[in-house]
Amino acid sequence: MKRIPAEKKIIQNVQIIDIAEEGKGVGKAEDLVLFIEKAVPGDVVDVELYRKKKNFAEAKIVNVIKPSEYRTGPFCPHFGVCGGCKWQHLTYDAQLKFKQKSALDALERLGKVNTETAEPILQSFETRYYRNKLEFTFSNKRWLTAEDMQNRDDLQELDALGFHIPQRFDKILNIETCYLQTDPSNEIRNQVREFAMQNGISFYDLRQHEGALRNLIIRTSTTGEVMVIVVFAYPTDNEIESVMSFIKAECPQITSLLYIVNQKKNDTIFDQEIITYSGRDYIFEEMEGLKFKIGPKSFYQTNSLQAYELYQIARNFADLQGTELVYDLYTGTGTIATFVAKKAKHVVGIEYVPDAIEDAKENSIFNGINNTTYYAGDMKDVLTSEFVQAHGKPDVIITDPPRAGMHQDVVNRLLEIEAEKIVYVSCNAATQARDIALLNEKYEVTRIQPVDMFPHTQHVENVVLLKLKRTGK
Question: What share of the chain is helix, strand, coil (3-state, %, to 5)?
């Protein structure tokens, strides 16, 4: 993609007609599709191009001629710099409108699905402080804001604890207040940063791979429990003890205080030893009286309140009568399986991650559920004809795959199994639509319910009910 030369190209009176996934407004002018930073559908703007290709260009607003009815002021001072919450400049009603449109457009265009009977998107109960997990990064080279650049000669402190700048893995934006996670998240993060800076404990250098403090992970639950994981890189024993004892003393509300020493070149913790410094090595989430154990490596939907709504929709779509054998594919820690078990005869859960399956088994034990069985392994390798023969043909299949959707072999197996119903939960409407197109050979879509799990972002969950077509009609 070419950068625009010094004589900047200005295009006037651009009508914004849509919004792209990354939060940029979409307009058309001079045979170009324009992707415009912080533009909102309905805006009329003058723009300056800064990157251009043959048929499209990227631009920024230089003048708003007419603001859209959907435009609103962002509530976070980090908006436009931080990589999160890119739709803050849209009213929440507008966000819901465009998320619904995105999900249904994908089903129509890629899945050839008639979406006329789709239900309105289910809005999130909370539009701020709705996440139960955040991961922050320590860096000794923070991102310099516009204000910092104006006072660059006076800068003395470059340490940061916050989020990665988009497309800049080595630059971290220092975050004072994040509106994604409820207290004590901000309090804990700010206290840890100040303590480390005052005591000369080094922040991680993402290029040189050196420094003591690397990441800070905070998990909360609706039960009021808090998990804090401090990830060190190259600390001394004294630095570990100093940081951990400070957190324990200053933040007594923490239920689970853990740490990791990660000296790999990447931040993933799934292959790392977790050391419990204080409290339990897990916290509990609750839903309809069910308790879910969440460990440091556990996957759990990051919007707890909306996860409950999502699981209710999946259960309602399945319409279980108590006699059904249910397969829960990509079960994770068994949250959906546990949630629907009391309505089913038996639930078989399959998941790739062995640790998650162990959590799923424990969740069943905690809740006194004895009609679930779990298996670990790659879905396409586990869900074979022999597996179905051994465990029984399911009446209902619930599938909640990762963003990439289901492997072709898994789709083929579903066509072979011919369960009466498939409830497909997806965080990516495009791959969901692709899989539905493949299932169309034997299944028809009868219900569609988009769900907003992540306000102020482009992300949307979608639940679809597919029923086996009847032959001989």
Answer: 25, 30, 40
49: Cβ contacts below 8 Å, ≥ 6 apart: 4, 8, 9, 10, 11, 34, 57, 58, 59
- β-pairing, 32-37 vs 56-66, is parallel
Q: Which amino acid is at 234?
A: Y
Other C-beta atoms lying within 10 Å of the C-beta of residue 310: 23
DSSP assignment of 100-130 equals HHHHHHHHHHHH----TTPPPPBPPS-SSS-
User: From the centroid of its chain, how far is CA 405?
Assistant: 15
- Element at 189 (helix H, strand E): helix 185-198
- Which residue numbers are catalytic? 427
Rg, Å, the chain Cα set: 24
Q: Evaluate whether 403 touches 427 at the Cβ level (below 8 Å).
A: yes
Query: pLDDT digits over 149-189, tens only?
Result: 666 655 667 899 999 988 777 889 999 999 999 999 999 99
For residues 288 and 369, what is the distance between their CA atoms, to the nearest angstrom?
14
> Omega of the bond prior to 41 within 30 degrees of 0, cis?
no
Cα–Cα dist 57/50, whole Å? 8
Angle in degrees, 0-180, between the axes of helices 92-111 and 429-439, rounded to the nearest 10: 30
Closest CA to 64 of 46, 49, 82, 84: 46
SS3 category, 426 = strand
Whole-model pTM: value is 0.91
Q: What do you get for the CA distance between the two ends of the chain, in Å? A: 54
Q: What is the residue-wise DSSP string for 274-343?
A: -EEEEE-S-EEEEETTEEEEE-TT----S-HHHHHHHHHHHHHHHT--S--EEEEET-TTTHHHHHHHTT
Judge contact between 45 and 34, C-beta under 8 A: no
Q: What is the pLDDT of residues 50-96, one digit of tens each?
A: 998 888 999 999 999 999 999 999 999 999 888 889 999 999 999 99
